[in-house]
Amino acid sequence: MLYSVKSAGNDSHESMPFVCHFVLRNEKTGTAARIKGLVDDGAMVNVLDAALWPKIRERVGDATKSARTLRMANGVLVQSQGQWTGEFDFEGVSVQSAFEIFPSGGAWSFLIGKPLLEALRAKHDYDEDIISVSGKGRTALLKN
């Protein structure tokens, strides 16, 4: 992630990271976890922070092994610690998706990447900073 730092006298518009709440659901048991995540349409994978994983594992179910290696923005390669697949719900719009587990170093707890945004048919209105998602005959608006 890259943020700007305002200098004295700079009156330009500041963009804010798009952070929202959603639900991960274990379809077998019906148990769920409500999570706060960061939308990043530049991320080519959906990622769950390894520090969050032990806190939600009992509710969402087990992960499987993953052979994926993730390339960070600085070029560093990090091996995924596993993959969880299940239901992702944004305000009643649900899709199946997979999420890699790896340590973010505290940068974020959950990264909503391009694969999930594509599955949700997401449209981001940058002027209003609203994302609309749709699926299964439902549409939801997410406001930053």
Characterise this structure.
The protein is mainly β. The protein is 10% helix and 43% strand. It has 2 helices and 11 strands, in the order E-E-E-H-E-E-E-E-E-H-E-E-E. The protein has helices at residues 53-60, 114-119; strands at 18-25, 32-39, 47-49, 69-71, 77-79, 82-90, 93-102, 110-112, 123-125, 130-135, 138-143. The protein has a 6-stranded mixed barrel with strand order 1-2-8-3-7-6. The chain has a 3-stranded antiparallel beta sheet with strand order 9-10-11, with no helix packed on it. Strands 4-5 form a two-stranded antiparallel ribbon. The longest helix has 8 residues, at 53-60. The radius of gyration is 16 Å and the shape is globular. The two termini are 17 Å apart. The model has no long low-confidence stretch (mean pLDDT 90).
